[in-house]
Each structure stands twice: as structure tokens, then as C-alpha cells.
Amino acid sequence: MVKKYKIHEGKMLEAEDGNMLFYTNIEESEKRYLIDELLIDEHTLNSSLDPDELARLEFEPQHFAFIIKAPKHHLAPEELIFRVQSIGIFLFSDKMVVVSQDPLTELFYSKIFQRVYSIKDVFFKIIYSFIIQFYYHLNVINKISDELEDNLSQAQENKYLLQLFALEKSLVYYHNAITTNQFLLEKIKFNAAKLNITGEEMELLEDILIENNQCLRQAETYSSILASLMDARASIIANNLNVLMKILNIITITIMVPTYVVSLFSMNVTIPLAERTDAFWIILFMCLFSAIAFIVIWNKIITKFK
Questions:
Q1: Are residues 157 and 278 in the same domain?
Q2: How many CB atoms lie under 10 A from the CB of residue 105?
Q3: In this predicted model, what pLDDT tens digit does every residue of 46-94 receive, in sequence order?
Q4: Any domain includes 126
Q5: Which residues contact 263 (CB under 8 A, 6 or more apart)?
Q6: Taking the mean position of all CA atoms in its chain, how far away is CA 9?
Q7: How many structural domains does the chain have?
Q8: Which residues contact 253 (CB under 8 A, 6 or more apart)?
């Protein structure tokens, strides 16, 4: 599916004669048109739909090809893995072609696209909008991790740990994507002359580089914090398990001592106190005394080794 846009009075408007083509869920006929008519390299076009592809810049005879990383729309609230996607942008002298899996045209309703005056201006602001999306998703991940930490402090359940692992995995995806975008932006800046970037466009590119670098630092910070929290949480759970096992062992041994006393008096042999009427209470007292004695001795041993 393709949507065509053009610039009119500083705004993006959908038009049949638009010179900016946005392809989503590209069909085979549209793919053949891009390859045969616009001479877009088939490998580069396929890379635009490969989420594992790295961001890069390629110089073609008729156009410039950009592979850019962007956050993928998150539609499953039960899954906490935030993934990334690849976006292909092909800049011609008189047109721009954008190929993606998720629709991008809703971006044009944001404040970023209220004033655009050229195709390159739209190109840079598309990249800037991806950075804003990364910022937003990183803040969402941070808030979700805080909620999961609260849940874990109240209930030691595996599902909360698995969700934290999913968030940590998402941060790795985002950090890698933002890093490759940073390399792409630096390459664009280095080849500004080849790309015919004007002075105003260069200022916009500098701002985008700063924003992307700050976004990268934020991803690194959140990833480091979450990794540290995961290690601390694993240590706390292991310590809680050790404390629980210690308590269970004490209870087990405390029960075993009086059980041993009762077992002695349960043998089928002649035993003391057999003729006494108060033998039951004497044996019961011995059981209680042995249990209390064990607890006292245990506490002294623990105090000695503290």
C-alpha cells in the first residue's frame, strides 16, 4: 500500500501527484516498480523490511539510500518486549520513497511536521520523530520496571522476573538501534557535501545528533540500572531462600529431638517408669525439655558465630 504526500504551505498534505511516497506492507507489484522503474537495489529494499539490519547509508547513481532504525509499534500489553524495525528511505533529486512495515503517515500530525519546506527537511524530521519515539518508549520501560519492582517486593513470583528479563532484552535492542542510528547520522554529517545539505539543514542535523546522543545515554543508563536491579533482586531471592531453608531445618530438628525421646519409650522392651501412673506426663515433660534445650543450644551457637 502506498500513500503520496506533497508539501503545501509548510505542511504535509496527501495528494495523488505527491512526490513523497510512503509504502507500508509493500506488495510484489509495488516492489517490482521500485526495483525496475526507480532502480532501487533489491537487496537494499529487502533490508528496509529486515528488523535485524543495521542502519547505514549507500550512494547509488540515481539516489541516496538510508536504512534507519525505529521503535516498532507495541500492540500486545501482555508482552513486555519492545522491538525495533528497519525503515528504508530513498532520496532522489525530485522525490523521496519511504518503505516500512508500520505506517508512518500518522507522524505528520505531530508538532514536528507543522513547518516543513523541502524533501530533505521532511527526511531529517522523520529521523527526529524516531528519536522522540525512542525517548517515549524508554520512559515507558522505566515506569514499567518500577511497577514490576514494587510487585516483586510484595510477591516472589517468576512471572515478574521474566517480565523484567523481557524489559532488559528490550533495552538491549533499543541501545543497539540508537547506536547504529548515531553512526548513520555521523556519516551523513561527514558526507554533507555529497548529499547537498544546506546550512539550515546542517543545523537541524546537528540538533538531531545531539538528541540522538542524549537518547543513547538514557538507554545506557536505564539498561545499566535495570541490569543492576536484576542482579540485586536475584541475590535477595537467593538470600530469602537460604533464610527459609534455615527456618525449615530448625523446625525439622526441633521436632526430631522429642520424637527421638518418644521413640525410646516406644520400644518393646522393659523400660523405666512403666509401673508409674504419671509416666505419660514425665515423658511429655522430657520431650518439651529436649526441644527447649535444643533451641537454647542452637541460639548460643548462632550467637557465637555472628
A1: no
A2: 13
A3: 888 888 888 888 888 888 899 999 988 765 554 678 888 889 999 988 8
A4: yes
A5: none
A6: 40
A7: 2
A8: 294, 298
pLDDT digits (tens, 9 = 90+) for 4-26: 888 877 777 888 888 888 888 88
Same domain, 273 and 139: no
CATH code: domain of residue 91:
3.30.460.20
Note whether 151 and 272 are same-domain residues: no
Indicate whether 248 belongs to any domain.
no
Structural domain contains residue 251: no
Query: What is each CA distance from 209 to 134, 181, 212, in whole angstroms?
Result: 14, 9, 5
> Which element (helix H / strand E) includes 155?
none
- What number of other Cβ atoms are within 10 A of residue 289's Cβ? 13
DSSP annotation string for 189-236? HHTTTTTT--HHHHHHHHHHHHHHHHHHHHHHHHHHHHHHHHHHHHHH
Identify whether 246 is part of a domain: no
The pTM score is 0.75
- Residue 15 backbone phi and psi in degrees, to 5: -150, 150
Give me the domain span that covers residue 287.
265-305
Dihedral of CA atoms 145, 146, 151, 154 in degrees, nearest 10, equals 140
pLDDT value of residue 153: 64
